[in-house]
Structure formats: structure tokens, C-alpha cells
Amino acid sequence: MNIYEELLSGLGKDISFNEEGIFSRELKKEGAENLPLLLTIYNDMQDMSFRISVMSLRALSNNLSPQLMQAFIEKSLEPLRGGIGIGVYPDTRYLTVYQTLPLAGSNKDVVMEVITSLVDEAESWLIKLRENEMNMGCELVEYGSEAKFGGVMNLCV
User: Fold this and answer.
1) CA distance 134 to 26
2) How far apart are CA 77 and CA 155, in angstroms?
3) DSSP string of 6-73?
4) CA-CA distance, 137 to 94, in Å (whole number)?
5) DSSP H or E segment with residue 87
6) Dist. CA 42–CA 36, nearest whole Å
7) Which residues, other chains included, contact 40 with Cβ-Cβ below 8 Å and sequence gap of 6+?
8) Cα torsion 97, 101, 106, 107: sign
9) What value, to the nearest 5°, has the Cα angle with vertex 23 and ends 149 and 18?
10) What is the mean pLDDT of each run of 10 residues along the chain (157 residues)?
11) Closest CA relative to residue 53, chosen from 10, 5, 9, 90
């Protein structure tokens, strides 16, 4: 096990990066949304950092309230202050939270804290999105094989 895999050993066994330096794993956690999240870690050997993202398999609604849109835009700038950012994964409309973690001085506990924070942030935003959809008259529709990842799409009336 190399140092990078050791830093991720809190995720269990079978930790390995592909030839592009990417590790991915689906995370399923009990909760209100009960949708899986996709954890992806890019091992940036040049910058000596992990770029960590957690993506929901739930597309953003076309009808976000102005307040939620404002909060989303503000959160997207948090990485400028070293915080957790938010965005939409290209070609999917899937909510994605992310953070870069410098490896200098990091240990397994620090890495797991960042991953836990990202999962908590993603789940918090999923709850906000669900509340927004209920207030805006949206309906969830599941879809599968024809989508890039499969997941849930929001239809608003």
C-alpha cells in the first residue's frame, strides 16, 4: 500500500487509483434522500493534493427559488477561501460538492474528516433542493440506462 492509498484506508479495503490518478466509489447512506453519492478523488501528484468531490445522482431542478440560487452561487466561491465548493457536473445537472486537500501535513483522519464534510454538505443541499421542489411544485422521475449515470430527474409544473 502506497502513501496515497494509506491516506484513504479509512474507506476500507480495495483502495486503488487508476492510471489517470482517479479513485471512485459509490457511497450509500441512510437518510431522507436515500440516494447514492459518488465519491471521486483525483490524486494530483504534481500539486501533492487530493481533489475530492461528492456527486449526487439527482439532477437540479429547472426551477430554483431566487434564494436557493443565491445560496448556490455564493457557495460556489467558497474554494477561494479554502472551503467546500458546489457546482453541477458537466452534461448531467448533478449537484457536486468538492474540495482540494493539500497532502502536506495530512493524515488518514484529516482525509476522512474532509470526505465526511463533503458527504454532509451534499446531503444538506439535497434536503434544500427537495424542499425547494416541494415549494415549487416539482415531481421526481427516475431514469436509468439512457442517462450518462442514471439517477433522478426533476419535473416542475
Assistant:
1) 27
2) 28
3) HHTGGG-S-----TTSEEEEEE---SSS---EEEEEEEETTTTEEEEEEEEEEEPPS---HHHHHHHH
4) 20
5) strand 85-89
6) 20
7) 22, 23, 24, 52, 53, 54, 55
8) positive
9) 105
10) 82 87 85 75 93 89 86 92 91 92 91 94 90 69 48 49
11) 90
All three cell numbers of 111, joined, read 482525509
Place of cell 492510471: 19
pTM of the predicted protein model = 0.81
Residue written as cell 450509500? 28
Q: Give the list of residues 6+ apart from residue 90 with CB closer than 8 angstroms, or none.
A: none
